[in-house]
Design a protein that fits this description.
Layout: E1 5-11, E2 15-24, E3 27-37, H1 47-62, E4 67-68, E5 71-72, E6 84-89, E7 96-101, H2 104-117, E8 121-127, H3 134-144, E9 148-151, H4 161-173, E10 186-189, H5 196-203, E11 208-211
Parallel strand pairs: 1-6, 7-8, 7-9, 9-10, 10-11
Antiparallel strand pairs: 1-2, 2-3, 4-5
């Protein structure tokens, strides 16, 4: 795919930045940049408002239409829109994740390695055998308010009860996303493939659930790349 234009935004703790990159004479060049206050806190409590404000500044500077209402125009058509839009978050120092596994020294550590390998900050490793009672785990999830949760546990074809219990704890905690009330918390499930339907039934309506390959399909082997 020959990309002629790229729009990228980054949501920081206080400032949201937007940049427009265009292909000119066969080379990619940063041509315009804009910024606006991040709107994650009250009264807006919706990070997209700050993103749109930063993009509107780029629109004005570039004299180029990038928005159709509240939507990024993509792909580029003529001199309007962009071929691809990328968004990142550096608020609080980067993406803050909580990971969970059935056995802390196995699937818990595998989940932690997967998250760290993706550049995330791991706030906590929760496990079925970490010694905390269910209500303590629920309180911990609510207090931390992670940007994303990686849920794992069990080998493919093995027992499903423990990883489903972790999903039920997550459901009871009902964690609220930090990036606005209109969003659902992203949760990646990378555990026992036999539990996928039960995980979907437990969490599917409450969170933005993404189911991928098991990070530990057998005891002796890790499979970290799909969850990253």
């Amino acid at each position: 795919m020959d990309l002629k234009s790229i729009l990228a935004t980054d949501c920081g703790s206080t400032t949201t930045k937007a940049i427009l990159i265009q292909k000119i004479d066969g080379e990619y060049r940063l041509t315009h940049r804009g910024e606006a206050p991040t709107t994650v806190e009250a009264p807006f409590e919706d990070v997209t408002r700050g993103v749109l404000n930063a993009v509107m500044e780029v629109e004005e500077l570039a004299n180029r239409k990038l928005l159709e209402g509240d939507e990024i125009m993509s792909p580029q058509k003529g001199g309007e829109g962009v071929d691809i839009y990328i968004s990142t978050s550096s608020a609080g120092g980067g993406l803050q994740m909580m990971v969970a596994g059935v056995v802390k020294s196995m699937s818990g550590e595998s989940a932690e390695r997967a998250a760290l390998g993706a550049g995330s900050i791991v706030m906590d490793v929760m496990a079925s055998n970490d010694g905390r009672l269910p209500h303590e785990k629920i309180k911990r999830i609510r207090d931390l308010r992670p940007d994303m949760i990686l849920l794992s546990g069990g080998i493919d074809g093995g027992t499903v009860s423990h990883v489903v219990e972790l999903a039920e704890i997550l459901h009871a905690a009902n964690p609220q996303p930090r990036l606005g009330q209109n969003f659902k918390l992203p949760v990646i499930y990378a555990g026992n493939n036999m539990a996928q339907d039960q995980i979907r039934d437990t969490l599917g309506e409450m969170v933005d659930l993404d189911i991928t390959d098991n990070i530990r399909p057998v005891l002796e082997r890790e499979n970290l790349e799909p969850s990253r």
